[in-house]
Amino acid sequence: MAWTRARDGLRLYYECFEPASRPRAAVLLLMGLGANARIWAPVVAPLRAAGHTVVAMDNRGCGRSGVPWRPWSTRTMAADAVAVLDALGLRRTHVIGASMGGMVAQELALAFPERVHSLVLGCTSGGLPRGPALVTRRGVREVLALAVRAVRPVPLDVQVERFLCANISGDFAATAPRDGECWRAVEAMLAEPTCLRGLLHQSLATVRHSSWSRVGGLRPRVLVQHGTADPVIPVAAGQELARRIPSADFQQLDGAGHALGLERTEEITQRALAFMRAEESGSRV
């Protein structure tokens, strides 16, 4: 557990997990709207077991990172990620971004291509302004629900249940045990609640993000992963994102919801590991 400073002096929190076996290239994890690094727990374990140093950070506005008074952009958060890499002395990493974190990952790879070995984009989009077909009413309702919870807290177990129901498929939500890894990861994340100001500023950064016209210039290799039952960002957004990125790989997860790292942990991590190994060796999956 450690902190560093962003370019504007904001305090940024991150955690670095050493590999459990022979070291490979590091992996940076970037999470979505209102969520902090603790929700990455199910994904961290298999990445470490495969030999990767894993870095998970709290985006500005949530977790233990600072919350500025002025709004910011996904480009600002990309620069924050570089500040964390600099603090660790990491010149180049694989980057995995989920939802809003996937938008930040795009900006990171566009502005600092020399820092990104490969890019894995999960349940994300090139931006909401692309059209109403690529954002759901349920996704908007979930953001509004987050804002209400930030003002009027409810018991933690109720928060976990609501989060799971809003972000994973109905079948998985109905069977997820309360003492299981998925439940514990969400519970740990919600133990550090996002304040209303941080949530609103992150929401504004997400709404203002648009990389559709620029993703074709991405230099690192890209793997796009998306669930067909995503209730927040439809699978059409992931398909369109992969289509616009030359030579991008696309992994469709039938029946999966928005929080792929919770619902389809093994599938997405094994595919990401194979993709990253191929990029390190110079071959293609």
Strand order of the largest sheet: 1-2-4-3-5-6-7-8
Strand and helix order? EEEHEHEHEHHHHHEHEHH
> How would you characterize the largest beta sheet?
8 strands, mixed
Look at the helices and sheets and give the structural class: alpha/beta
* Mean pLDDT level: 90
Q: What share of residues is helical?
A: 40-55%
Count of helical stretches: 11
Distance between the termini: 34 Å
Kindly provide the radius of gyration, computed on alpha-carbon positions and rounded to a whole number of angstroms: 17 Å
Shape from CA axes?
globular
Low-confidence stretches: none
- Tell me how many strands there are: 8
Beta fraction: 15-25%
How would you briefly describe this protein structure?
The protein is of the alpha/beta class.
Detailed description of the structure:
It is a single chain. The chain starts with a strand and ends with a helix. The mean pLDDT is 90. It is α/β, with parallel strands linked by helices and 285 residues long. An eight-stranded mixed β-sheet has the order 1-2-4-3-5-6-7-8, with helices on both faces. The radius of gyration is 17 Å and the shape is globular.
